[in-house]
Design a protein that fits this description.
The protein is mainly α. It has eight helices and four strands. A two-stranded antiparallel sheet has the order 1-2. The chain has a two-stranded antiparallel ribbon with strand order 3-4. Helix 5 packs antiparallel against helix 6 and helix 6 runs antiparallel to helix 7. The chain starts with 21 loop residues before the first strand and ends in a 12-residue tail after the last helix. The relative contact order is 0.11.
Length: 295
Amino acid sequence: MSEKGDPARPLCEKEGCRGLPCVSFAKKHYLCEDFAELISHKMSLFDIFLIVMAVLALVVFIALYFFEAGYGYLFNPKFGFPIPNRIGWVLMESPVFIAMTILWALSDQTWEPAPLALFLLFQTHYFQRSFVFPFLIRGNSKMPFGIVLMGMIFNTLNALMQGGWIFYVAPQSDYYADWFSKPYFYVGAAVFLFGFIVNLQSDSIIRHLRKPGDTRHYIPRGGMFRYVSSANYFGELMEWVGFAIASWSWAGAVFAWWTFANLAPRANSLYKRYAQEFGEEFTSLKRKRIIPFIY
């Protein structure tokens, strides 16, 4: 027991701590009273960050119903000079994978089971999206650089949002105590895995719509495309809803909201484009846009 009488707060022998109760955070030492003030300040800043991100998502959600994000089937050169799709996807998605890895490596939670499990879920998606998906793309399609740049900025902010919560904010409040005895991690991980599989399957269906040299457009069929016109987006939405449940955090919830705010308007634009190009052949399928039986 320490001379202060608290066995849970051992005295620190490091130079400068004066033999007082001390804790370690982000590989630095703080006196307990100073640490409490530090964490309170960090959590307040993080809460503001989440609120700002949630409000920005609302702005994006509304704006995208008036301005189509011009890439893929909806390509529009007004969003910047075109670059090859493969390069664009790597540049857009890899910053979040790299930033999340750095945040993980610099934290005190590197090998703690609960943060590590959430880290692996998150990185599974972004490894595939950054370093596998781009090299499966067929053809020589282009992506506007402006779209790539916006994606890079959001993905970096999202790494700070998710990594900040998982590795730096949550661990300081015993948030992960008995984590694997709670149902939401398992429910969330199952939803994430379902979405991941749907996303992979849907991307494969889209990728195999055309034969080499073919430039025509086709209606995707099979898998979750039986129910929605943007099954790949439905899969990605389910991934991040699952992650939000697994992390049981406002940071995860804000990311799920961002995913919906970005993809739902785009799914609506794609639905309209399919209806315009294919007419009754498409509308007779009675698909929803992104959420089966709902929207």
